Amino acid sequence: MLTPRDQLLASHEEFRKLATEHTQYAERLDSLTQKRYLTDDEKLEEVRLKKLKLRLKDQMESIEREFRIQIQHHQVA
Predict the structure, then answer these.
(1) Which pLDDT does position 76 carry in this prediction?
(2) For the chain, how far is it from start to end, CA to CA, in angstroms?
(3) For residue 49, what are the domain limits?
(4) Residue 75: its pLDDT value, please?
(5) What does the alpha-carbon distance between residue 43 and residue 47 come to, in Å, rounded to a whole number?
(6) Residue 56: how many CA atoms within 13 Å on its side-chain side?
(7) Alpha helices of 1-77 — where are they, by DSSP H?
(8) By the 8 A CB rule, do 5 and 26 touch?
(9) Distance CA 67, CA 73 (A)
(10) How many domains does the chain have?
């Protein structure tokens, strides 16, 4: 049985787009954190990426929450 997240990745284009962006930001953050020293621009980019990543996570969780509610309503009906 697929998890709600897997179902959304398979069928919900906006969720899939958000997940892809989230992964890209995470990968860029990983590359920054592997550096011993960050330039001022890289430090700013790190902060910006963390905020963007968090915003995307919040959006994804909101979509997943709505999806779970829809599933519950269909199971009750």
Answers:
(1) 80
(2) 21
(3) 12-76
(4) 82
(5) 6
(6) 19
(7) 4-11, 13-33, 40-76
(8) no
(9) 10
(10) 1
pTM of the model: 0.87
Least Cα distance to 6 among 64, 55, 70 occurs for 64
Q: Which residue has the tokens 């009906």?
A: 77
Could you give the CA distance from residue 10 to residue 64 in angstroms, rounded to a whole number? 13
Residue 48 three-state SS = helix
Between CA 43 and CA 39 the distance in angstroms is: 6
The per-residue pLDDT for range 6-58, each reduced to its tens digit, is 999 999 999 999 999 999 999 999 999 999 999 999 999 999 999 999 999 99
7 inside domain:
no
68 in a structural domain: yes
**Residue 34 lies inside a defined structural domain of this protein:** yes
Q: Would you say residue 4 lies in a domain?
A: no
Instruction: Write down the pLDDT at residue 1.
Output: 82
Q: In the predicted model, what is the mean pLDDT of residues 66-74?
A: 91
